[in-house]
Amino acid sequence: MTDIKKSGNFLVSKEELEKQTEYSELVKTVISSRFSTENPKAFVHTYGCQGNVSDGERIKGMLEEMGYEFTDDVSQADLVLYNTCAIREHAEDRVFGNIGALKQYKKAKPHMIIALCGCMMQQQHIADRIYKSFPYVNLLFGTHVIHKLPELLYRVLCTKKRVFDITDSDGVIAEGLPVHRDGRFKAWLPIMYGCNNFCSYCIVPYVRGRERSRDFDTIVNEAKHLVAQGYKEITLLGQNVNSYNRDKGSEYNFPALLRAINAIEGDFIIRFMTSHPKDCTTELLDTMAQCDKVAKHLHLPVQSGNDKVLEEMNRKYTREKYLSLIRYAYKLMPELSITSDIIVGFPGEQYDEFKDTLSLIDEVKYTSLYTFIFSPRKGTKAYSMPDPVSREEKGRWFKELTDLQEQIAGRRTAGMKDKVYRVLCEEKAKAEGVLSGRTEGNIIIEFCGNENLIGSFVNVKVTECRTWIVRGEMC
Ligand code: SAH
Ligand code: SF4
Ligand code: F3S
Question: Quick one: average pLDDT of 29-34?
Fold first, then answer.
């Protein structure tokens, strides 16, 4: 695998993709003979991050090509597929609960195919447990063989045997898979896969393989295509977008990609996530400031405000380096909205160290935070680190953190009063005649308007500020 990595070529071969297209046709023939009156229905549910949601859209694209329609009702489904996440224990517990609940559906409908995929399934101990404890699961596949879904499904349909494939590898890139996009005007655009960072608490590098970047022109062309189709918001995805193309040693880095997409003609905005602080450069911040289509929102997960904890997390930056980036960013873009991820109660973290996270939050003035209590992940370094602080104690710290962030967010949104923001209208709000959208800074804003505005940009003047959302009037 090392040689492949050096050459930057993780591409699945044309022959392999053609073979899968043939399998796709075979599946279509088999199911059309079994379902003569109407098309079979698939229930597909994705957990986890946007990267996984984007995989889910490719999985749905392949299923659609094989002749499946989609349903939101499990009891109506001929195929149920859970695309899972392994980031925290809670995420896995929920999946186990849901698989258990499928037993009754399978009993009522014995031909129902039950399939599992995604990060959680890429772990051997999970696949083993599913194999033993859930005999009605027909198909299980990992993150490196998504493009083989037609072949795997064909084997399930024709052999009636259980098919489990969690081939481990450094990872691949399968270009040209069909995509069934869930959104009409917001699109996910993966630019890279995998992660090389091995933060000591994190399972992602083990279940997603090594960092591999998609071809620059392929991404720009996909973005052009999306704009031509009427998409108004494109979110570039990767676990660490700042290291885009480093695996290939190419000068076409992430800022260059942002500039190239920004140059596409049309009225749309560009978002991206996630940025790792260790690779976040002043060049990236300068580029954000210069590119009018790039949303002035930076999701820059800090995880902790204490240098000792950061080192044990293997994050490879210090509090000061992080804060200096933030100061530079605010100087360039005073209106910038910054968000972050925080882990509370990393093994061995002391209350005094946690207080450094509180003071950092107070200094940065984040718009919002995604906060998590540390969850031990089997196979990671932090899994076996001594963790003496009780769950209750961590819960108290967690509350202190979220209370502080609530005050900060409230003050930030209060500062939006009477200002005008450009907003992408997204959906109808709960109240009659009210629409909901997001500002560039990713703050939810509600205003009265006709639903035919959904999917377009409008200017809204803020009249009322709550902690997490604001209200306004179109102008
Ligand atoms: N690549 C991104 C993070 C992706 S995972 C980055 O490095 O910023 C999303 C978030 O989940 C992480 O930022 C972290 O805050 C949280 N997370 C990951 N592993 C975790 C664990 N074992 N316990 C608790 N939170 C975790
Ligand atoms: Fe996990 Fe760290 Fe990679 Fe993010 S950068 S996915 S936290 S290992
Ligand atoms: Fe979860 Fe995998 Fe994403 S572990 S957060 S779905 S990369």
Answer: 92
Which ligand is the nearest neighbour of the Cα of 198? 2
User: Which residues contact residue 261 at a Cβ distance below 8 angstroms, ignoring those fewer than 6 apart?
Assistant: 219, 220, 223, 234, 236, 270, 293
CA–CA distances in Å: residue 46 to residues 332, 366, 371 = 37, 28, 21
Q: Is 171 in the pocket of ligand 3 (CB under 6 A)?
A: no
Q: Which atom of ligand 1 is nearest to the CA of 87?
A: 19
> 3-state class of 244 per DSSP?
coil
Nearest residue to 8 via CA among 157, 150, 216, 200: 216
Is the pLDDT reported for residue 448 higher than 90?
Answer: yes
* DSSP H or E stretch at residue 288: helix 282-290
Confidence category of residue 153, pLDDT binned at 50, 70, 90: very high
Instruction: Transcribe 63-94 into DSSP letters.
Output: HHHTT-EE-S-GGG-SEEEEEE--SSHHHHHH
At 375-404, the pLDDT tens digits run 999 999 999 999 999 999 999 999 999 999
Between CA 355 and CA 167, with CA 313 as vertex, the angle to 5 degrees is 145
Predicted local distance difference test score (pLDDT) of residue 247:
85
pLDDT, mean over the chain: 96
Instruction: Report the CATH fold assignment for 9-165.
Output: Rossmann fold (3.40.50)
* Ligand with minimal distance to 197 CA: 2
State the distance from the centre of ligand 1 to the C-alpha of 293, rounded, in angstroms. Answer: 28
**Which ligand places an atom closest to the C-alpha of 373?**
1
Q: pLDDT tier at 443 (50, 70, 90 boundaries)? A: very high
Name residues whose C-beta falls within 8 Å of residue 387's C-beta, 6 or more positions apart in sequence. 345, 347, 348, 374, 376
For a substitution probing ligand 1, which of 90, 202, 244 has the most ligand atoms within 8 Å of its CB?
A: 202
3-class SS of residue 191: coil
Return the CATH fold of 420-474.
Answer: OB fold (Dihydrolipoamide Acetyltransferase, E2P) (2.40.50)
- Confidence band for 248, pLDDT divided at 50, 70 and 90: confident
**What CATH number labels 186-414?**
3.80.30.20
